[in-house]
Queue: 3 jobs
Job 1
Amino acid sequence: MENRFVYADNAATTPVSKEVVEAMTPYLTDFWGNPSSMYSKGREARRGLDEARETVAAALGCAPNEVYFTSCGTEADNWAVKGGARYMRDKKGRTHVVTSKIEHPAVLRSCEALEREGFTVTYVNVKPNGVVDMNEMKNAITDDTAIVAVMLANNEIGTIQPIAEIAKLAHERGALMFTDAVQAVGAIRVDVGELGVDMLSLSGHKLNAPKGVGALYVKKGVRIAKFLDGGGQERMMRSGTENVAGIVGLATAIKSAVERLPDMERVRKMRDRLAGFILGNISHTIYNGDPDLRLPGNLNISFEYIEGESLLLLLDLAGICISTGSACSSNSLEPSHVLLALGLPAEKAHGSMRVSLSHLNTDEDVDYIIEKLPPIVARLRAMSPIYPGDDKQ
Amino acid sequence: MRRVTVAMSGGVDSSVAAFVLCRGGDDCVGATMKLFDNGDVGIPRDQACCSLDDVEDARAVCRRLGIDHFVFNFSDAFRRDVIGRFVSAYERGRTPNPCVDCNRYVKFDAFYRRSRELGREYIATGHYARTEFDEASGRWLLRRPVDRNKDQTYVLYSMTQDQLAHTVFPLGELTKPEVRAIAEREGFINAKKRDSQDICFVPDGRYAEFIESYTGKEYPPGDFIDADGAVIGRHGGVIRYTIGQRRGLGVSFCRPMYVAAVNTADNTVTLTPESGLYGSSLSAHGVNLISRETLESPVRVTAKIRYSHRECGAVAVMTDADALRVDFDEPQRAITSGQAVVLYDGDVVVGGATID
C-alpha cells in the first residue's frame, strides 16, 4: 500500500471542518463587533452568539440560558469543580468532594487545589474494565459531599461511566453532580436530562471546531461560584468579551456532530476490526478498558516488551498518528494514571497505544495501520533486551 | 552521512554539539530525556519547573537549527538505575557518582537503544571527550578532549566498544570559551546559561534530606569513633557523611577531624586527623576496559579517584575477572568507596571500576 497520512488521535484533537471555517469566517471578517455593544455592529455579533447558544443547548437537550461558553474544556472543568465546591462550602458548609481515579488532569488537579483549600477529596477506584466501582461510590458520597465529579467517557480508554446512576446517588445526599463530557460529546448521545447532571463540560476542538472554545452546562437553579470577574458577560458568571467566531464554530460543529451520530456505528466497526486484528495477530498484547461500555472510536492496547514512545515515533515515521500511555508531552512523565488505576503494572502501561478514530477515518486507514503496525512491533521487540520471543506466553 | 540523535539537555554544551554536527552535514534530530518529575525529587511541583524549562530551551535550539526535537521519557530507568543506586549506595556507607550510572544505564543504554529503534545508528552528546578508532589494536579509544579543564572522560569510563563506535562527541576538539562563543554568535537562548552544578535531581546539594524524603526512612544517630574505636561524639545518621568530609560534623575537636570510614554495620562513623585519610592502594570492582582487552599483568597508568581529582601515577592490575587493584606512587587523600577509579595512559582512557 502506498504511504498515507493516517490521523488516528482524535481524542487529542480534531481538524477544523470546512463548514465550521465557513460558518466562522463572517464573524472574523464582517461581524467583528463586540456583542455587548448596542449599535448594529454589536447586534450582528450578538445574534451569532445567541444563535450559537441555542444550537448548543439543542444539541445537549437543555435551555440556552443553561449554556456558558468558556475558553476550553479545562476551563469548564476547573469552573465546575472549584465553583461548585466553593459555593457548597460557603452556603451549605460542605467540604468534601468525590471523584474517580481516572479523571482528566483538569479535574484531578482542580480537586488537589481544593484539598489545599481545606476540602477532603475521595478518589473512587475503578474496576479492571475502567468502570467506577459503584459500591465504593455509594459509600464515598456523604451528607458533607459538596460535589461529585465523574467523567462521562474516559479520554484514554474510552470507558463510559454510569453517570445517571451516580447522579442519583449524589442527589440523594444533596450533592452537586458534574460530568466531564469532553470526550463524549459528538461520539455518543449526550442529553443532560437523561444523565441527570447539574453540570457538564465540553470542548470545541474535540469535535472539529477550533481550539480555544468550550462550554459548561449549568442546570437552571444550580448555583456555583462565578469564575471570572469583570464586565459581566455570560450572565455575570464568566466575564470576558465573548470569542464569537469560536463560539459560532463550536455551535456549527456540535450540530453536525449530533447529526452524524449514526455514522459512529461505522467508526465502531472499524475500531473493532483493528482490535480484532491486533489481538489475533500480535502476541503479548493486552486489551485495556471495556469492549462494550466504550466510545466507538477508542481503542487502547498494551504491547508488552515495547515502550509506547518508541511505537509512537515509529508509527509517526510511517505517517500514522496515535498516542501512548506514557504520554511523550514534555510535562507528562508518568505512566498513565488511568492504566495504573485499572491495575496494569507500570511496565505494561508504558507500552500502551491509544487509537482514536473519527468519522473522518476510512477502511483504508485501518488497512494501512494493519499493514504497518506488525513489522514495527516486531522490530521493536527484536531490539528489546527483555523480549522472550513469540512462542512463550 | 551519519544519522544521529543528539542528546540535548537544554544546556549550552549539547546545543553547540548539535550545531557542530548539523554544520558538518550529519542528519540530526535532537532529543531531551525526561528523567524525573520535580515533585518526585523534592522540588516543589508548582515551582516553575526547571527541567521543563530545559526541554523548552532544547526545543528552541532545535527550531533554530531546523531539526526535529523529541522528548524521551526515561523516568523509570532513571529512578531505578540512577536514583535507586544512589540511595542504596549511601545507605551502605558509600559515596556514589550518579553521573556515571546515568551515562551507563540511561544515556548510552536506553537513549542509544531508542535512537537505533528510530533508525539512527549514532548518538551524540555534549560531553568534552574524544573517540578514535585504533587500527593497531582494532579497538575504539576514549581520549581526553582538547579542553583539559572540561575533561569529562571520567564519567564515561563505562562505555563499551559498541557504544564508542556509535557515539559522537562533537565538543572534543573545542574549548568551553569557544563553545560559549558559538552559542552567542548563533543566538541560542541558553548561551548565557550557567553550567550545571551538583547532582541534577538534588539541585540544592542536600543529599541526606533528599534520601530521607525519597525513602521515607529515618537514619538513626550513632557514635563517632576514633581509629581505636573510642567513642568521641555523636553523629546524625550515616547517610550524612562521606569520606574526607570535615564540615558539618556538628562536633568540635581540638584539631581538625575528618571522616575516615562510614560503618553501617554498627552505625558508627570513624573520624581521623588529616594524616589518617591517606591510602596508597585500592581495590575496585565492576571493571570496564576500553583501550585494552585485558589487564592481567600490571601496567603503569595514571589514576583518578574522583571527578575533580588530580590524577596520580599508579600501577594497576586485574586480580580476577571483575576486580582491579591500583597501587599509587604516592598516598592519596580520601579514597572513597562508591566513587569510580579511572585509569589513563596519557590521553587515552584505559578503563575504570567502582572503588570497593
Note: The longest strand of chain B covers residues 278-289.
Job 2
Amino acid sequence: MNFGFKKNKIIFFILFFLILGFAAFILFKYIMLSKQNKEASLILNVYNWGNHISDGTNGYLNVNEEFEKNTGIKINYTTYPDNESLYAKLAASGTKYDVIIPSDYMIDKLKKENMLQKLDFSLIPNSSYIDEEFKNLEHDPQNEYSLPYTWGIIGIYYNKSIVSELEKEIDWNILWNKKYEKNILMFEGNPRDSFLIALLKLGFSINTTNKNELEMAANEIIKQKPLIKGYVSDQVFERVSSGETALAPYYADAWIINNKDKNLGFTIPKNTNKFLNSICVPANAEHPKEAMMYINFLCDPEIASQNISGIGYSTPENAAREKIESKFYHSKILYPDEDIIKNAQVLKNLPQDTNDLINDLWLKTRASKSNDTTKLVLIFLIFSCVYIGLKFYKSLKNKRKLNKGNLVIV
Amino acid sequence: MKKRIILTPYIVWCIVFIIVPMVLVLFFGLTDESGKFTTRNLCEVFLYPDVFLRSLWLGFKATAICLVVGYLSALIISRLNVKLQKILIILVMLPMWMNFLLKIYSLMFILQDNGFINGILSSFGFSKFNMMNTEGAVILGMVYNFLTYMILPIHSSLVEIDEKLLDAAKDLGANYFMTFVKVIFPLSIPGIVSGIAMVFIPSVSTFILSKMLGGRQNFLVGDIIDMHFLGGIYDPHIGSAISLVLMILLLICTGIINQLQNENKSKKGALVI
C-alpha cells in the first residue's frame, strides 16, 4: 500500500534532480557564452542574397567560418530574396549592416540616395584582381562604391522529356507557346523582373522609359498569364528537376552542370539580361574598417575560387577562375561566348515616374487593379447595412419579447 | 486599487504592442513621404475592389468548410468518454505545436504534381491532376491551418451543456434530431461565433498561404500589403492604408458575426461589439 506513495516520491526526486541539473547546465552554458562574447571584440553584420556565399554544404570552403577563424571577428550573416527587399530593409533602417551585396541598378539607386559609403581601397589590396571589363561600369563609373562579387546571365531551363523543340529553336517566344499551357514557371520578386522577359521577347530595351512599349509588355504579361503554372522567387530547381515544369527562365547556375539528369537542359537566348552583384558598404555601417577586411578576404583568389564554386555563378576575377574545376572553367553556361555577353543588356536605375508606371501596370496585370473606386465603396456600404440591419432587427425582437413578458405579468 | 496594480502589466503591454502600432499604421496611412497629410493612399486602396472581394470570398469559403467539418468533429468528440476526449483534443491541438511554414511546406509536398497524392493516383493508373497553385489549394491551406481554432471553442461550449437539459428534452418526447435543433445547437452558438471569428479573420488577411500554395496567380489583400512592405513595391504609406481599410472591413465583419448570438449571452462571448 505504501509502495505507491514511495514510487511517487522517487519519481518526484528524480524529476527534481533532473530539473536542477538542467537548470545548472543552462546557467553554466550561459556564463560561458557571455564570457566568449566579451572576448570576441565585435560582430560584423553581413546582408547578402540567399545562397550567395559558399557555406560548406557542397564540399567547398565555408567562407564565413574561415574568416572568423582567421580574424576572430564574428559574422552575423543574414539573407534577402531580392534587391527590393534589401532596399526596404535599408530604408526602414532598423538594423545597421556593414556589408551588403546589391546588383547593378540597385547600386545606382542606393548611391543616388546617399545610402552607400566610398570603399577604402588602400585596405583592399586584393581588388587589383578584378578584371578590367567589370570596372568603370555605368552604375559606378569611378569604381568608388562597389566591388564586383559575382555575375551571370538569364537563360531558360527546360525539360527535354516535355519540350520537343531543339535547343537552337528555343527563345523567349517559347514562353508564350500554348503547347506548354500550365507548364511554365516564371521567376519574379518584383515588377521589373516580370517586365524583363516580356520586354526581351518584344525586342525592346529592358530599360525603356517609353510608355507604349511598357504597355505592350504589360499586354504580353496578361497574354502569358493563363499559361503560367506559378510565379515563384525560388524553388525553380526543385520544380524543374522533378519534371513538374517544362520551362522556367532563371539565372545560369552551376547546379545544371552538377546535375546528372540528362533530360534537363539550359539555353541562353540571343538577347538576354546580364547581372552583376557587387559588394558595398552602407553609409551607416558601424564597422567600416572590418568590412573592408572582409571584402579583401572575399577577393583573395583562393577564397574567391572556393566561394564561386559553392555559389554556382560566375566570377569577375580571372585569377579565381583559373583555380576552379575545369568543368566550371570551360562551361559555356557560366562563361558564355563573347557575342552573347556583348548582346546582353544590364538593368539600369530608372527615373521615378517610369518606376511608378511599371508598378502601376504590373498591379493591373496581377492584382486586377482597376480605375473604378465605386465597387469597394459599395462593398463597405453593403456590409455596414447588413450590420445595422441585424442590430435593428434584434432590438426590435427584444422589444417584442419584453412586451410579451409584460403582458403575461399583467 | 489592488485591481489596478494587477492590471498595470496588461495595460502597458496594450499600449506598447497594440495602441502604438495602430497609431503608426494610422499615421503612415494618412501621410505621404514628407509626413504631410494626404488622402492619396486611401484613394489608391479603393482601386483594388476585386482583391478585397476575392479575399473575403476565399475567407468565407474556408470558414464555411471549417464550420461544417469542425462542428461535426466537435460534436462527435464531445459525446465520447472523458479519457478519449482528452486524447482527441490533444490530437486536434497537435498541429498547432508545429511551425506554420513547415505545415505549408508539407502540404506543398502532398499536393505537388509529383507529390504524395499524385504518386498514389499514378500507381493505380490514374492520370495526374494539378492541385498546386489553384484556389482550392489556398482554401485547403486555410482549412488545414485554422480548423483547430474552430473545433476548440465549439467543443468547449458543447461540453458545458448540462446533461440534465438533454434528459429533460428526452423526457418531453424530443428525438435526437429535435434535441439537437432545439437544445444543443442554440447552446453552442457562442462557441460557433468565436470559432467563425477566429477562422475568418486570419483567412482574409493571410499572405503566405497564397504565396506558397496559390503561386501568386491572383493576389489576396495580404499579398498586396506584403508587396508594399517587403516585396517589389516599397511604399509603406499605401501598405498601411490598405491595412487600415482591411482592419475597418474586418471590424464590421466581426460586428456582423457577433450579431449571430444572443445579446444577453454576449458577455460570455469572446468578442463584444
Note: The CA atoms of residues 158 and 175 of chain B lie 18 Å apart.
Job 3
Amino acid sequence: MKNIVVIGGGIAGMEASAFLAAKGYSVDLIEKNDTLGGRLANWDRLFPTMRRGSEVTEFLAEGVMQEAVKVHLSADIVRVERHHDTFLLVTTQGNELHCDAILLATGYDLFDARRKEEYGYGIYDNVITSADLEQIFSSGRDILTQKGKKPSRVGFVHCVGSRDEKAGHTYCSKVCCVTGVKQAIEVKQQIPDAEIFNFYMDLRMYGMHFEALYKKAQEDFNVQFVRGRLSEAAENLDGSLALKVEDTLAGRPMKINVDLLVLLVGCTPSEGTRKMASLLGLKLGFNGFFKTTDQHTMTNYSDIPGVFFAGTCIGPNTITNAITDARAAATAIDIYLSGNQLANRKMKPHEEFWLYPSH
Amino acid sequence: MKNFGYTRHTDRQIDFDATDKRLYQFVFDLEPSINLCIFCGTCAATCSAGHFTTLSFRRISLLLRRGMNDIVKKEIENCMLCGKCQLVCPKGVNTRNVILQIVKGIEKYEL
Amino acid sequence: MLKEGKKYIWKDYQKEIADNHYYYARSCIRQNFFPGSEATFLRILKNELNKDIFDDPEHTTCTGIGYHSDIIPLETTMTVVARHFALMTAAGYKNLVPSCITSFGIYSEILETWHEFPETLEKTREHLFKATGREFNLPENVVHTSDIIFKFRDEIAARGRFRLIDQSTGQPLRIVEHIGCHYARMFPHKGIGGAEYPYVLAGMVESWGGEVIDYPERRHCCGFGFRQYLVQANRGYSLSCSRKKFESMEPYKPDMIITNCPGCPYFLDRWQYVIAEQEGKTYGENGQGIPVFTYEEVAGLVLGYDPWDLGLQVHQINVEPLLDKMGIPYNPDEKYAGPDGQDLGQPAELTCMHNL
C-alpha cells in the first residue's frame, strides 16, 4: 500500500486525506495545532448561508474518521529527505514517516493589522479585526466597546492588508468583501438600532449568492456602504474613533465617528508554507504563496514530482473552493501514484512574473 | 445681438473626443504610476489642503484623463506638497511627482 | 490607547544617527521666528554634550520655500544643495544636520532622486562645477537636528535641572507634540518612529518627564503650506488648519505644544493670537493661549537656561504659566531687555487674549 503524508489539518488537508484514504492509500495527516479544522475553527458563521462553521468542520471530520486517516496532532515536520520516488519526513515527536507523495495544505495566515499603522490596531482600544469579531460571535458574548458600552455605530474597513502596495500585499484576498457584508448583518442582528457603515474601494461580490447577501444587507439591514477608503482612524477622548475618509461619490472629505471599528484583514502566506518551502526546496510565487507548475492547468502540482498542493497555500480562497481543490488534489495524487500517463502531460512554461516589476 | 430672454445652455456632457489629453499623456509618460489610481479617495481623505479647498488628488487624477485641464490647473495650486497622499496611497502612485509633472506639462503646453 | 502598540511600531523605525562631527545647516526663517532656538542647539551640543559641530557662515538657504512655492525649479534646488555638500566636503565633514524640516526633506528627496536617477546627480555635478568650480561628496549621514536631541535626550535629562512636571501637583505636564510634514511623510523610514506615530518628540517628552497626549487631529498639518501663507489672501487657509488642531486638542487641556519644524511653532503660536482677536476664542487656561515651543527651547528649559536667553519673550503666547508650572525662576523685568540691558520694546496691548 502506498503512503501519503498530508501537511496541514485545515479544510483542504482534511478533505484530501479522506478522499485519498477512500481511494485505498495509507494517509498520515500532520497538524501543528491540537485539533483539526484549521482557521475554520475560528470562524463562527459562514457566508452566504449563515450556517455555523463548525457544521462544515464536523462534516470534514466525519470523512477523516470514517476513512481511518492517521492523524498526528500537535505535530510539525522538522526534516525531509527525498529518496528517488519516495520521501522521509520526521516529525517533532520523532516519528519517521516514509511516503510516496506529499500533499501540502499549509493554508494562510491573517494579515497583521498592526502593520496598517494609520488604522491604529493594537493602539486604539476600539479597533478590532474581523477575526476578533468572529471570536466574539463564537463566544456568545455581547459586542461591546472597551468601556462596556453597546456600540451605536460600527464601521467596517474593507481591504486591510489586501490590494495594498504599502502593506506589501498587492493581491485581493477574495473573502474579506463578503465577510464584511456578512459581519455587518450579524452586528445589525445583534444590535438592531446600531448604524453600520462599510468603507470600501471596490465590493467584489463574485461568488454565487454573494450579491444577494449584499442586497440583503442593504435592503433588510440598512447597512450603509461608503465608497471611499479610510486614510486614518484616531481616538477621541471618549474612546470612540474619528475616521477620515473621502466620500468619493460626494467628492468631499468626510469625518465620521464610530464606537467600534472592524478591520477586514486579508490573507497572507502562512508560516507553515514558508517552512515547508524551505524544507523541500520549493519555490514561492511573487506573492509568497506556493508557486504552482502551471497557472491554468496544474495548480495542484509543484515542481517536485510527488509533491502536491491543496487549498489556500496557493492563494486566498473560499471554503467551497478549498474543498473542491482538495478533492482535485486527491485525484491528481491518485493519477500520479497509479502511473497513469495523464500525470506526465506538459504545458509550455509561462512566466509567472511578467506581471510584476522585479523579483 | 438680440436678447430673446433666454440663452443656449452650456452642455454638461464631457465630449471625450474633443478634450485635450496631452497633459495626461505627458504626465503618464514621465510618471506611469498615475494610471495605477483606482479612485479610492484615501489621498483626498488625508489631504490637509482638501479640508479648506476643493483639492482632491483623486479628482485631479480623474479630471486629468478627461482632459479637464483648466480645473486641474486651478486645483493643484492648493497643493502644499506635504506628502500625506503619497504616504497613504494603497496603489503606490507617486502623487508628489504627478503634481510636479502636471506643473511642467502646463508650462510646456501653455495651458 | 495602548502604549505597547506604539512601541511595536516604533521598533520598526530606527535610524542611524551619527555620534559626533556635524555640519550644521541653518534654517532661513527660524532665526527670525524663534531666534534663540538655533543658538541653544549649538550651546547644548558644544557645552553640554562636547560635540564637534561646524556652523558654516557660507551656508545659504536650500531654496525649499521657493521650491515648494513653485518659484524655483528642482534642478536649481539640486545645484544649491550640491553647493552645501561641497561646503561640507571642503570643511571635512560627512554628517549633515539641517535645522529645518523642509531642508531635511529636500536633502532626503534629492539624495533619493540621485540614487534612483544617477544621471541627475551627474548633471548636478556638472552644473555646480560650471557655476562655482566646486566638487562634492555625498553626506554619509543626514539627520534632522531634532534627531540629534532625541539621540541625546537621556543625557540632557541627566544634566537637567527641571523636568516637564507640574510642581504644584507632581503630575507630568500634558504635552501636544507636532511634527513637520516633511520630517517623515515622504520617507517614513527616515523618521524616528515613522510617519503615523513619530517618536522623535514623544521620546524627548518621555525622557524629560512629560506625558504626550494623542488627539484626533494630531496628524493634521499646521497649514503653513508655503504658498498658502505667502499670499495674504490665502492665509485664512493656514489659519483654518491650525484652528482645526486647536479645537481638537482643547478638550485634552494641554499644558504646552512642542514642535520640530520652523513653520509649525510659528503658526501654532501666532494663529492663537489671531483667533483670539477674530473670534474672542482662547485655548489655554485663564484666557491665555497654549504655549508653543521648539524642542531646543524645551531642552534649554530642562537644562535650566534662562528663559529670556532662549528667546521665549518673542513668543506670541505668554510662556510664564508654563514656567511657573515647571518651577523655573525668571525675572519679569528682564523679559523685554536685550543682552546688554537695552529695552527691546513691549508688545501692544491685546484686546481679546488676556495679558498676564
Note: Chain C touches chain A through 18 residues (CB under 8 Å).
